[in-house]
Every structure is written in structure tokens, then in C-alpha cells.
Amino acid sequence: MDFENLLVEINDNIAIVRINRPKKLNALNRETIGEIHSAFDALLKNQDVKVVILTGSGEKAFVAGADIAEFSDYSVEEGKDLAAKGQELVFDYIANFPKPVIAAVNGFALGGGLELAMSAHFRIASDNAKLGLPETSLGVIPGYGGTQRLPELVGKGRAMEMIMTAGMIDAETAKNYGLVNHVTSVEELLPLAEKLAGKILNNSMQAISSAIKAVNDNYKIGVDGYQTEIDSFGNAFGTEDFKEGTDAFLNKRKANFK
């Protein structure tokens, strides 16, 4: 896959998607958002890809935010369209992606960058990472799901403080908040992400896809996540993966999921 602002590589069932605008600290613009959607759409259809790692090029930034110069003169309607299309094409799309997505946060993850990381299924960070939602300092609010996903991850009070102060937190604070799962060195960030992806690959991808949906449904208004769990649990009994997994367990061997 060839893109202007992304680098995509696939090895051993793991895809690594790098936001690649180093001169702009990997800031998001409309073109990049469109390319992220196209890349994930292709990875969804690629049966060789089981897990996706999302990161930024270089060591300075995961994504330092949105490209402010692109929308500084937008009208009210253009602003609404920017948020709506961004959420549809990328942020909600990744959050509901049926294959596991790990965000490897290297350096700055600010504004749209933090929102992109939060749309992944979980996050790890390098020890030089700085995370925050600085939008209120620009006279606007997070528009790519930040006001919704941050409270889910860190709690309402901490989310309110981060949004209202427009400040940044370091990687260890983010770990203490539950915003990232692990903190490691810059050099070990991708190896750790690949190690976690490898552990995921040992399990049933069909079951993991169902689990992603069940967990996400708990946060959707008007959707009963418990019922999703019940239905998905029951449906699993009719799969070849269930037969393989239980047979492997009972016969004390490693499961070989298709």
C-alpha cells in the first residue's frame, strides 16, 4: 500500500501503520485522515492481517494534533462536517475495528493525536510521551471523540481537568490514570507492541472480534452490552475455534486456530 502520509508494513500477521508527516510532527489533516481510513479498510479485507499496531514516524511524536492551519478559517458548518467525517472515517471506525488495534504512543499525542490513540483498543507509551487535549486553549473543544473516550478511560474528574486546563501529562501519569497500559523506552516501544500482538495471535481471532464488539456495546446508548455478551458467548459454541480450543485444553496441547 502506497500513501503520501502513511507507511504500512505487514509481517507475520501483524500490520504496522505509521503516521508519516515528520515535518508536521505527524499532525492530522484531511488527506491523512482519508489515508488512515483507506489503510484500515484494506487491512480489514486482508486475511493475512490479524493485529494492527498504530504509531508515528520518528521519536518526537505519535501525532502532535490536528493541522490547525487547515481549518483555522472554517465556518460553523465546516467545523461540524470536519468532526463528523473524521469520527466516521477514522476514530469510530478504528474503535469498532474487528481486529485488535494497539496504539504505540511515541512522543507527543495531543488533541487529535490523543483521540486517535484512544480510539485504539489499548495503548502503550514510550517514556518520553506527552499526552493531552489542548483544544480549549484554541477556543474549541475536542472534536474527534475526546470528550467521550477520555472520561471512559480515566474517569470524569480527571478528564474534566485535562480538558479544562489544556495541559499535558507524562507517560507515567498516563499509566497511573489508566490511559496507557505499559510504559517503556523509545527503543523498546515497538518490540513491546509486537510482543503483545504475538500473545494476541495465540488466541482465537474470531472470539477476540466478538469480545471487541461486546466491550464496545457497553458504552453505546440504547445497546445492552450484557445481551451482546450472552449472544456472542452462545454463538461461539457453534464455531470451529471453540471445538479446537476446548479439545486442545482437554488434551493438554496448544490450540491451532484457523
Name the overall outline.
globular
Mean pLDDT: 96
CATH superfamily of the largest domain: 2-enoyl-CoA Hydratase, Chain A, domain 1
Q: In this structure, how is the largest beta sheet organized?
A: 6 strands, mixed
H/E element order? EEHEEHHEEHEEHHEHEHHHH
Walkthrough of the structure:
By secondary structure, this protein is of the alpha/beta class. The chain is built from eleven helices and ten strands. The strands form two sheets. Strands 1-2-3-5-7-10 form a six-stranded mixed sheet, sandwiched between helices. A four-stranded mixed sheet has the order 4-6-8-9. Strand 2, helix 1 (30-45) and strand 3 (51-56) form a beta-alpha-beta unit. The model has no long low-confidence stretch (mean pLDDT 96).
